[in-house]
Amino acid sequence: MSDYSVPMQAFWLDWASNNPSSSSWDWSRDAAQVAMLQLAAARCTERGDCRLELFSNSPVWWMLLNHNPSGSASGLSDNLQPWNQANHSWYMTAVAAHARDVWGVDFSSIELFNEPAAEWWRSDGTQEGCHFDRGTQAAVLATLPAALQHFGLNGSLRVAASDESYVDMALATWQALGPDAQAVIDQVRE
Questions:
Q1: How far does Cα 53 stand from its chain's mean position?
Q2: Closest by alpha carbon to 58, among 34, 83, 92?
């Protein structure tokens, strides 16, 4: 049986502290996937023709309304707790900074959502995923610049959004995000 469907464990364990040096964080988790990431980054550097993107299928389980990283019950509603919107940006940015500073991995871009408008991310699913209404995407994106600034990644880490499943979904999301969220985004994904 293959082990590739097992999701990467979260490094931020609980909401007690957002300080990545605190006991609320465990950077030793999932060492095998970190080693694979380092090998991929080394190969990318050797080839010189590729870029690495840090992306999220779902926020960390404890940030979710139902604590299930496969999605909401219906797949039609946001699963990210509104009070954790900034935490999702913070977590992803902290991982990018740690990867750069400790693992020697430089990501070229960061993407907070994967197929966010999709309605198939349900709690009875077998893969990580999270539906984000377009207004929620805009609200989360609004929290990203402060996190990038805090970790010294503004200007060096491009922001990608929103990695939709289809071109028409990507266009509808882009148009619905509005100018403030659009100003945060450096590249559009589909």
A1: 10
A2: 92
Other CB atoms within 10 Å distance of the CB of residue 3: 6
User: C-alpha distances in angstroms, 125 versus 21, 66, 72, 139?
Assistant: 33, 13, 10, 26
Task: Specify whether the CB–CB gap between 141 and 185 falls below 8 A.
Answer: yes
| Residues in CB range of 21: below 8 A, 6 or more apart | none
What pLDDT digit, counting tens, does each position of 167-188 carry? 999 999 999 999 999 999 999 8
How far is residue 144's CA from residue 154's CA, in Å, rounded to a whole number?
Answer: 10
Pick the CATH number of 51-188 from 3.90.1150.210, 3.20.20.80, 3.40.640.10, 3.40.50.360: 3.20.20.80
Instruction: Give a three-class secondary structure readout of 111-152.
Output: ECCECCCCCCCECCCCCCCCCCCHHHHHHHHHHHHHHHHHCC
* Residue range 104-160, pLDDT digits in tens: 999 999 999 999 999 999 999 989 999 999 999 999 999 999 999 999 999 899 999
Residue 59 is encoded by which pair of tokens? Answer: 């926020």
pTM above 0.85, yes or no: yes
